[in-house]
Design brief:
This protein is an alpha+beta fold. The chain has two domains: 138 residues, Fructose-1,6-Bisphosphatase, subunit A, domain 1 (Fructose-1,6-Bisphosphatase, Chain A, domain 1, 2-Layer Sandwich); 110 residues, D-Maltodextrin-Binding Protein, domain 2 (3-Layer(aba) Sandwich). It is built from seven helices and 15 strands.
Length: 261
């Protein structure tokens, strides 16, 4: 695997957290779980994974800033660089014994994501990318977005809001417009993996309306480095603000026009 020192540090941290999570996943029924809100759980495993990642990344780069789902924001002595981490994306899947969840780590430099890792420990799939160096799976498989050009052949992914989130009516309208035009829509419950799957050509596109930066920072770079397009859901907005559309270059306009209609 050819990568920068920062990328290798990220991969090491993701694998370390992944080993800890897999151990707890095997005993999911015994996890100590608290509730943050409807359908939004946080577990002992989640917090321990973030601790391990933070220890590894800040131990190797103590001047970098940090933003993590569980521990929030820590300013760094170097204001130009920041780690963006979701230690367990797909927590609800994890807690229900479904093997579809991931560790997501991104490095931001001067407001731009320059390195990304999304690790699926249950399947031992390490998706990684660096700006200008392409997108890769594990040690040596280069990834490209799909080559499909017809909407009726395309499979898209999304996230359907849970609980009483205000974006549910808009998402239902999205589904009503898009589903008649495509081959299918999947809701698998882990935004980082949805984006990784777009990068790998498994999904042809992805959109969602209400996300946090740690859910998508790494995945956005994966898609771009695999040749895909990513935009904010509303034209001219920043996708890292939490509402985005991602797809291969041949389907992006048709998909975006359908959702933005």
């Amino acid at each position: 695997m050819q990568g920068s020192a920062n990328l290798n540090l990220m991969i090491k941290a993701a694998r370390k957290a992944g080993r800890s999570l897999v151990k707890d996943f095997r005993e999911v029924e015994n996890l100590q779980v608290s509730t943050k809100g409807p359908g939004d759980f946080v577990s002992k495993a989640d917090r321990e994974a973030e601790r391990l990642i933070k220890e590894e990344l800040l131990g190797g780069r103590p001047t970098y800033g940090w933003i993590g789902e569980e521990t929030g924001v820590t300013a760094g002595a170097d204001p130009t660089r920041r780690w963006i981490v979701d230690p367990l994306d797909g927590t609800t899947n994890f807690l229900h014994g479904m093997p579809h969840w991931a560790v997501s780590i991104a490095l931001e430099h001067k407001g731009e994501i320059v390195s990304a890792v999304v690790y699926d420990p249950a399947k031992d799939e390490m998706f990684w990318a660096e700006k200008g160096a392409g997108c890769w799976l594990n040690d040596n498989r280069r990834l490209r977005v799909s080559g499909r050009r017809a909407m009726h052949e395309a499979v898209f992914a999304t996230g359907v809001p849970f609980g009483a989130k205000s974006t549910l009516p808009a998402m239902l309208k999205d589904l009503g417009r898009l589903m008649p035009a495509c081959a299918g829509v999947r809701r698998w419950g882990a935004a980082s993996l949805d984006l990784a799957y777009v990068a790998a050509g498994r999904f042809d596109g992805y959109w969602e309306r209400e996300l946090s930066v740690w859910d998508i920072a790494a995945g956005v770079l994966l898609v771009k480095e695999a040749g895909g397009l990513v935009e904010g859901l509303r034209t001219g907005t920043d996708p890292l603000d939490g509402a985005l559309i991602a797809a291969n270059d041949g389907l992006f306009k048709a998909m975006a026009d359908t959702i933005r209609a």
